[in-house]
Design brief:
alpha+beta, about 15% strand
Length: about 500
């Protein structure tokens, strides 16, 4: 888009009661100091934004005529299409768009549709750009510059670092990847310290366990314990078997004595039956018994004797069986194995203590091995995160370098510092313009104007917008490259205000 001014008119604007002039490809304004040269540039910016050329709020009414109405009108072409803008101010501000009165909102929207305020002021006044905050300057320059592609940055990095980062960027953005691994590094760093301390503690415990001890063959100890346990169990078994035999013999002997006594009692009972007298008289009434009664008594005695004999035979048979069982049980000598078992137990317990010590040592060695593996794993992840963080730093550094090259390629004499490298290696955003290795703040007035004109040219090329440029104090520079758009220059020269219009476009003005 190209904007050209055809005509500018002012009434009661600062020290101008009336001013009207056509504008050409080059418009030179001459006059002494205070003649109102700068006011012509201020009239344009006040008309558009209510500010002076530096973007500060402006009240353009003449000091000696506070009640008069101030008017500024510009007729311009927007890509060849005519547009007339007008602003007037007395007690209120009025706006006209193509000579039609409009509200402030509609007027401002019409201006915004053509160009951005900061962009217009930066291209209209070569000094304005550098009055902005560095962040605003940076944003304005980078607005039209594409960020470097990852492939461009990777090409500048070491192959291993580039491959490492490329693989991880498949899952996360660069910012997210940095957050993930900064958090993981911090966590693993703490874990590594703890893992190192645990490993050292376990090694100290192992040293204490091994202190003053001969090497222990755990398998040999287990085999000896098993052997001694078998020996002890064999003794216990012998003792229990002998004890069982003795108990059974003692039980049989007691039963035999009891059965023998019972048999003897039975024999005595038979003898008593034999010796029983047959009573011939009734024991109750004393009368004599008849033969049948006497026979019955005899039969009863015979029956009882026979039953007693049978019972005696049964007792004798039981007694003989018990004697037979007793004979079958070999008489054993009760050996006291408790002392020997106690000795074996003592040896077993001693070996078990060694076994347990060996087991503790084994567990410690296992824990040490696991702790060492964990420490190595934590260190590996910690180092991986550190490597990624370092790769991201390098990526950002290379990205910044590529970006600086892109921006620097836009300029001829200007160089731009976009980043500042911190002590920790990270890149911090900044913005500073330099010319001939001098920062903008150290440049002379002429150098600042030249620097501003080059910035105007770059902004024009990047935004594809061409607008008029107003150079104040143009007498301070003898030779410079004219901007792509209209050039309006104000130069101090003795005499009254004078406007000189040139329609030819020159690349170099003097």
């Amino acid at each position: 888009m190209e904007i050209t001014f055809e005509h500018i008119q002012m009434e009661n604007f600062k020290n101008h009661n009336e001013f009207s002039s056509n504008m050409g490809a080059i418009t030179n304004i001459y006059g002494r100091n205070g003649a109102g040269k700068s006011s012509i540039g201020d009239a344009v910016t006040w008309l558009l934004y209510g500010t002076d050329q530096m973007g500060s709020k402006l009240d353009p009414r003449p000091i000696d005529q506070p009640d008069t109405e101030t008017v500024a009108t510009v007729k311009m072409l927007v890509d060849g299409k005519a547009m007339i803008l007008s602003r007037s101010q007395n007690k209120t501000t009025k706006y006209h768009l193509n000579e039609v009165p409009v509200k402030a909102t509609e007027f401002n929207e019409a201006i915004e549709a053509i160009f951005d305020k900061d962009l217009f002021l930066s291209m209209f006044n070569p000094i304005y750009f550098f009055t902005q905050n560095w962040k605003e300057q940076r944003t304005q320059v980078l607005r039209y510059v594409d960020e470097p592609l990852n492939s461009e940055v990777f090409a500048e990095m070491a192959e291993l670092q580039a491959k490492l980062l490329q693989e991880h960027l498949k899952k996360h953005s660069l910012d997210d990847l940095e957050k993930v691994h900064k958090e993981r590094f911090k966590k693993r760093d703490v874990e590594y310290t703890k893992a190192d301390e645990r490993l050292a503690t376990l090694k100290e415990q192992l040293e204490k366990e091994l202190e003053g001890k001969e090497p222990i063959d755990l398998d040999a100890i287990k085999a000896e314990i098993d052997s001694l346990a078998k020996e002890r169990d064999s003794l216990d078994e012998q003792y229990h078997k002998a004890s069982a035999v003795i108990q059974k013999r003692n039980s049989l002997l007691a039963q035999i004595d009891f059965k023998r006594e019972e048999a003897m009692k039975q024999m005595a009972a038979l003898e008593a039956i034999k010796k029983e007298p047959i009573e011939e008289n009734c024991r109750t009434c004393g009368q004599g018994l008849n033969e049948d009664a006497i026979d019955a008594v005899k039969q009863d005695m015979k029956k009882r004797f026979s039953e007693g004999v049978d019972h005696g035979k049964q007792l004798q048979a039981e007694l003989n069986e018990m004697k037979k069982q007793l004979e079958e049980l070999q008489e054993v000598e009760m050996i006291d194995t408790r002392k020997k078992s106690a000795e074996l137990d003592e040896r077993i317990y001693s070996l078990m203590a060694k076994r347990d010590a060996a087991a503790r040592i084994g567990r410690l060695e296992t824990e040490i091995s696991l702790a060492a593996e964990n420490k190595a794993h934590v260190l590996k992840e910690r180092n991986e995160s550190q490597a990624l963080i370092d790769s991201i730093k390098i990526f950002r550094t290379k990205q910044a370098e590529v970006m600086v090259k892109k921006v620097d390629s836009l300029f001829t004499t200007i160089s731009v510092r976009l980043f500042e490298k911190l002590k920790n290696g990270e890149m911090k955003e900044t913005f500073e313009i330099e010319m001939d290795s001098k920062p903008y703040s150290k440049l002379s007035t002429a150098e600042k104007i030249k620097c501003g004109l080059e910035m105007v040219e770059v902004l024009s090329q990047q935004s594809e917008l061409i607008i008029p440029t107003f150079i104040d104090n143009a007498e301070s520079i003898l030779k410079y490259t004219a901007p792509a758009g209209q050039l309006i220059s104000a130069k101090v020269k003795a005499g009254e205000l004078k406007v000189e219009i040139k329609d030819e476009i020159k690349e170099v003005a003097s």
